[in-house]
Amino acid sequence: MIYNQWYVILDSKELKNKPLRVKRLNEDLVLWRDQNGNACCIADRCCHRGVSLACGKIIEGKLECPFHGFIYDKSGKVTVIPANGKNKQVPETMKVKAYNTFEGYGLIWIWWGDEDKITREPFFFKELADFSYSTFADPWSVHYSRAIENQLDVVHLPFVHKTTIGSGNKTLVNGPVVKREDELITFYVNNIKDDGKTTPLKPDEIMDYEKLFHLQFHYPNIWQNFISDKIRAFAAFVPVDDENTIVYIRYYQRMINFPVLKQLFNYIGKVSSIVILRQDKRVVITQLPKKSDFKMDERLIMGDKPIIEYRRHRQELIERSAE
Question: What SS3 class is residue 278?
Answer without folding.
Answer: helix
